[in-house]
Design goal:
- It is a single chain.
- This protein is of the alpha/beta class and about 170 residues long.
- It has 6 helices and 5 strands, in the order H-H-E-E-E-H-E-H-E-H-H.
- Helices cover about 55% and strands about 20% of the residues.
- Strands 3-2-1-4-5 form a 5-stranded mixed sheet.
- Helix 4 (about 115-130) links the parallel strand 4 (about 110-115) and strand 5.
Length: about 170
């Protein structure tokens, strides 16, 4: 962005508050909707993967991102505060089931979540209702859990803590 501004040269006027909020936002929404239409054509032909990614923000809220992966790439659909139901398997099942219905049962090939106990139970409920789906635990989440366990070993824990200190020093 900075390079593009520099190439334009002096005299570049920034967009007004109204331009950013109305016409530019509408143009971007239209662009994203067109991208989604192209992906929907692919999902009917090849199928897609529904992905659920849970994380905790700075205010200690548990948020769940819902994404769909197509052959052309991944599209973000929604983020929601799941603090009140993150450990409730039935609620997670209802959430995943609703998204499978929204996308179309025939279009969803697999569901990817982390391996938390509530997600496993939710998967079993989903599988009973829609046996054609595959569930895949998130590989990145599995690796993260393995590294957490590995770095609990005394020798590696000390090395890891030192590496974090060095990284912090260099970064600052």
């Amino acid at each position: 962005m900075i390079e593009a501004i520099g190439q334009y040269g002096p005299g570049l006027l920034q967009p007004t508050y109204h331009q950013v909020r109305v016409p530019l936002l509408k143009k971007e929404v239209d662009h994203v909707n067109k991208l989604m239409e192209e992906h929907k054509k692919d999902q009917e032909q090849y199928g897609c993967t529904l992905m659920s990614d849970g994380w905790t923000d700075r205010r200690n809220r548990t948020l769940i991102n819902i994404l769909v992966n197509f052959p052309r790439g991944t599209m973000f659909l929604k983020s929601m505060d799941a603090s009140r139901f993150v450990k409730d398997a039935k609620m997670i099942y209802e959430l995943l089931d609703a998204w499978v219905e929204h996308i179309g049962e025939a279009n969803v090939v697999q569901v990817v979540t982390d391996g938390a106990a509530a997600n496993v139970v939710a998967w079993r409920l989903l599988e009973a209702n829609q046996p054609h789906l595959f569930w895949t635990p998130c590989g990145a989440h599995c690796l993260d859990l393995m590294f957490e366990d590995i770095f609990k070993l005394p020798n590696l824990k000390t090395t890891w803590e030192r590496a974090i200190m060095i990284h912090g020093y260099i970064y600052n």
